[in-house]
## 1
Amino acid sequence: MAGLACAKALVQRVADVTIYEAGAAGRGALWASGGMLAGGFECAEANASQAFTKLAQRGMALWSDWATELGTGNIGYRVGGVVSPASSDDELDWLDTMAENAQALGIACRRDIDLPDGLQARKAICFPEDGELDNRLLGPRLVAFLREAGATIHEHQSVVSLTSENGNVCVVTPSGHHYFDAVVIATGSDACDLAGVEPALKRLHPVKGQMLSLEGAGSVLPFCVRAQNAYISQKQEGRFVIGATSEPGLSDVQVDSTAINALRHRAECWLPALTTMRLGESWAGLRPGTPDGQPMLGAGTLPGVFIALGLYRNGVLLAPAVGEMIADVVMSGINTPLEFASSRFELR
């Protein structure tokens, strides 16, 4: 998602853009995600820094423009808010902490709201400016948009190495040597072949996430549920997407029925109406994590190489803002915030 967003920002600044994708464009972590645009919730739950909050808010604001360009219905985009419920005492404390964090960060948050119909909880708060989209619609639509805009996309073509030669960056693939003024590395959690060239890649680690979907006749959920132990999102064709486990260090995408059943049970506790629905599918994906949970954005080690790495579970949310930020660096030399520089790990 980060790579496609950088490509979009650059091609719209009249750059000649070529994308090398090891698999199928628009798949990977994007396809496996939940399509959350929950900047308010994410920042409040993590008590995020001002720099990350600003990036998330920028991403949220740009999604409105993206929806206009890509077609709101084409990507299932909506801003219905996030409702966070609580039942146990610990969960109530979690809500209070999030509300306090939101106030300190200037994030819109409504406390002590009336419980929506069908939601089983003692209390809930709402982040009214948060939204969501259908990530499986977004991937192919964004790929088509880039091709229509003139970008060249090479699928199933891994990058073997990068070198700097005579002021250009040489990208080596199985098909040959290709030369560019600038290269953006925007891989997922696994890019071992390039770790010797770009040390930032050594800081990435996979965080496995398992999810499921439910199908069948059911009521419309006009908002997204973000509880402490699960989230529930209904896509525009009616299916409910439930996520997600968080399993650091695991790099497989095998599905564990025990984990899936536990995740479904948690969701059904919040929305009992889900018990009548049938399992649609279950799957797993890999999030690209970093040691401190922050993305790595900006200039890389080699001249002409830039990085957009480690967006973890906020790849969709942050993508438009990350794309614009990297385009600023590439085209105008504007520095990214020091908080996101990969060099922060070398200084510790």
## 2
Amino acid sequence: MTVRKPFNRALYEAYDQKAKETLVSLLKKRGHTIVSQTEDFFADVVSQKDGQTYFNEAEVKVPWEHDWPTHWKEIRIPERKKRLLKKYEDEQGVLNFYIFRKDFKQCWRIKDTLLREGNLKEAKGRNIQKGELFFHIPFTIAQLIEV
């Protein structure tokens, strides 16, 4: 059985809308046209640029408050996001994950191709349940973006 942290409505309400708004603004600055922002429990924002469709997912890493701590060797994306990989694997588009800093001044862009079974493993932390799995992505292969 898969171990997952229970849904936290307070965190969702505190960060979800701001993350989506920031993502939309960032994408527009980068030349994307926003196609959809409808809450359907799949990609947060669907956009297009140069004839390509992008499925974009926004998350906030609340403990990340300033420059990325160099002792944090990786960015972790919850295993539950695997459903997005499955949903869009046959779509003609690109799935990107944007992990925002708490103040929304920076984010990491992680391409779906970096989320592989081989980097799915248990993580440890004070807010992580024993047995909970995450994709472990070395920050050195992600793209840091100033927002």
## 3
Amino acid sequence: MSADISTPTSIAALDARAREIFRQIVETYLQTGEPVGSRTLSKQGANLSPASIRNVMADLSAAGLLDAPHISAGRIPTQQGLRLFVDSFLEVGNLSESERRDIESRIAGTGRSIDDALSEASEMLSGLAGGASIVATPHRDSPLKHIELVAVAAGQALVVMVSEDGDIENRIISTPLGLPATALLEATNFLNARVRGRTLGQAAESVLEELKRDRAALDDAAARLIEGGIAEWSGEDPERGPSLIVRGRANLLTDPQATADLDRVRRLFDDLENKKELIQILDLAKDAQAVRIFIGSENPLFSLSGSSLIIAPYMNAERKVTGALGVIGPTRLNYARIIPVVDYTARVVGRLLDERNRRGGDGR
């Protein structure tokens, strides 16, 4: 008797036999990456004849949950099937205490800078997940200890910002041609007197307001330099997005299906190189409180490569999203293993950033 599958996106639409066969097919596919046939399921103890299993598989295929890559091959889950499996069947376990300690020690090692910690998080995720990892980093907006503007070429200056937690950020900015060195020095002194112990973002409004009230107190060239640059330096420029760390592209080639589907891998590589578009992953995580999973075309950024994205936001103490991290790979990712790793890594990164900001704000 065929299974009655009228609403394939609902688990309630599958009878007990169809649910069990569907679950076994997807779990076997995620383990092997190969199409699953009726004889394989029968040998695994499905308690049904291959002919009965084929009938159920045909119904699942007609419902859009399974597909046959070749006429005589077994079945693999479709994108719709994987979504149903992840939502209804997937059992996500907890990390062991030793796994948690390992993640914490690798990311939050003694004396590690924020940049090093984020880079290590990306490296670790790509290694554990066997896919490519992405970390979208927040604008650096830590309390400052010192700021300096130095001419480096005609029309260019280097902004050096040293935060109280020891991080150093350098940015090249454009300056008016012919800007005198005294203007850079005056702007440096003016800013250091007003931003020490505060972030540029916090100080920006009061600095600009002071320039409006008493512009004569500062050379006109220095004033224009500060007015034109402080929004960009403080991360308030809407054209500047967060920076991005991508690791583990080579892992994508270890997928058993990669050699048979190199066009898909090439398209994914192209997507990973397009960092301006890739930064949109931060928007995908903004409304989430935990891990989000995008399978195939559910994420328009990777729809052509047919890949899956597992992503989690990391937040500050006020629960504001400051960045995101995750893993990209083939749709047959080990979801049960990767989801808790991504989730806990995001928590550790968020906690580390908060600890560094508190130490900086306390002047330690």
